[in-house]
Structures are given as C-alpha cells and as structure tokens.
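Example 387.
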Amino acid sequence: MSTKKFAAVAAGLTLAMGLAACGGEGAGSDPDTDGGSEGGEAVEGGTIGVSMPTQTSERWIADGNAVQAGLEGAGYDVDLQFANDDIPTQSQQIDQMITQGVDLLIVAAIDGTALTGQLDAAATAGIPVIAYDRLINDSENVDFYVTFDNFEVGVQQATSMLVGLGVLNEDGSEGDAEGPFNVELFAGSPDDNNATFFWDGAMSVLEPYMEDGTLEVPSGQTDFEQAAILRWQQETAQRRMEDLLTSAYSGGDTELHGVLSPYDGLSRGIITALQGTGGYPATIEEGLPVVTGQDAEIASVKLIADGTQFATIFKDTRKLADQAVISAESFLAGDEPEANDTESYDNGVKIVPSYLLESDIVYESNIQELLVDSGYWTEEQVESGQA
Ligand code: GAL
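Predicted structure in complex with beta-D-galactopyranose:
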C-alpha cells in the first residue's frame, strides 16, 4: 500500500526545523543522532499517523503538537489523533489511519497490550510503527521505540523522596536524617509498560531503606498491584490516599512523612487528600508530607515553587518529539533508525530497538535552571501555574 518515501529535506535542516518548531534551546544538549537521509532530494512527502492517548494531561498535548510541528517542518502531512484514554477509540483511530494509507505510525499506547491487531494490519500494509514513550507489547510489529530511561526515572523519583526526607542530599550524598519515616507508595497504570519500569527503578532504591528500618510503610501496601492507579487517574489516586489515611493514619498517632508518586497528576490528587482528609498543612515546611512526581506539569511546578509538592521528574518532551521525527525520517528513507539501547525493552515477543533519553530531578532550587532557562516554561507560567 505504502510507497517508498524520501526525506523531504537534508537531515541537518530537518533537525534545525524540528528544534525551531519546538521552540527553544532545550535543557542540556540535543540528541546527536542523525538518522535522516543525507541530502535526499524531495520526491514526495508522505502522511504520518500520530496516535496520542489523551488530552487530559498537558504533556500529551505538548507531545502531539511537537511531533506534528517537527514532521510538518520536515515536509510530511500529519494525521494527529487523541483517544480520550479510551482503548476502543485509539484502536479505531489507528485502524482508520491504516485504511487511509499513512506511510508510518507513531503511537503512544493507552494499553500497551491492546494494539496487536492494529500492528498486524500495519505490518501487512508495510507501515513501520514507532512506539512513542510507551512500549507496545505482545507484537513483533513494533519497529522502534523512542522513550526515556524509564528505570532511571523511577530511581530519580525514589531518590527525590529520600532527599525530601533528609536521608540523602541533593548531590546524592548521605543526609543527616535517620528516620524511621512513614511513607506510602503509588504506582502508575498497570496496562502501561512504563509503570513497572518506574516502580522497579524506585524500589531498587527504596528496598534497602525499607529493610533497615529507615522507611516504614504503615499501610503494608508494598506490592505494585496494591499501589497501581488505573489510567493514571488523579481522582483514583486521591481516593486511594484518602483510604490509606483513614485506615492507617487515623487516631492521630501515626504521622505520614513521604509519598512516592510516579506522575504529577497523581501527586496533585494525593496532595488534595493530604490537605483535606489528612488535615495536613499547606506546605512541606509546615509539616505536609514530601510528595514526588513526574512530567514537570505546570500546575505541579507551581506547587514545587510554593513549597507544596517536593519534586518532579523533567522529561523534555521536545527532545522526545525530535527523536521521533528523526526515527521516522530514517524509516521513510529506507534506513534503520539509530538505537542506543537494544537490551532493555522486551515486549514479550522481541527486544525492541530503542532510543532512550535522559531525565532530571526538579527541585525548587533548580526550576529556573532546568525549566525556565531551557525555555520549557516561562517565569510567568511558573508563577501562575498555567500553561
Ligand atoms: C507514562 C509516561 C509518564 C506520564 C504517564 C501519565 O507513560 O511515561 O511521563 O505521562 O504516562 O501520562
């Protein structure tokens, strides 16, 4: 079905346009891969289907827009769809993209195991598939994976909680605090492959402290299944936190000191529960437990600046979008994209060649450096908490 396409412009120009479209210098250095075709002359553009999970979280809107801008800058048409976190909607949208004859698919799956049929159809039609941020499982037809080092994200989340408790310092050295500290643990959506990577990374850091008594989990809920929040829903996290407060902390003699949260949306639900049902004060300085996060969502960045949420993990989605564009161009030029990891991501059928990006811990002290100076958020946005 799909004809072979050539990259519309030289790779260097494409990368420059992609970066310009994404609007900033970006924190740190840009990916130095160059998977695009060298000086390939434009024969014809193509259409790329981009399937994103939801618009309820600002990161996926930003991801969708950045991927679209990068691809359009490189001369492709883009069919960008969001699926409202509804699995049948995402399946239908991808089915339709295949029927309409897109030349390549970029997919951030809602449920990593629900797209086998779509991927089979894509393979039959000769359409390469790039998994975006979230791995697609149980299919041999995932051609490439662009993401962050998800295990390391979990390590950073746990580390940030220990820093908040004073067990570690921001530079990673031992802090003065010895505990014991009471903590509760949250995990992401069990159908999202990333959730177990975040959890495993976090537990690799926390387990020794749980074993030597520095950390205690008064609820006893230390299994992934107990901690997981389906579809990453803020309200579900708030409800679970309220239940934990009622069952393990009522009576007033058990104080909670920290909460491991793997995503800013969950963190805000957890903080609402802590300040409501839990009766905890507004800021960490006044005694609010330390809550971690992920994604540097603007509402949470403001909470960090206000001393309410302790930390988040910054994954520069502009870089991820750039990497997706570079990888797409490689496929469309008839090449294989350059991977920097060919071991970590086994989707149950094969190990998917991956390009992993790095993430950073955001504390109040480095909001300016990581998020404002890099152009990810403006000072005004941090102050207002609105994008
Ligand atoms: C994960 C993603 C996180 C966060 C979460 C909730 O798959 O890696 O960055 O966005 O979904 O949307």
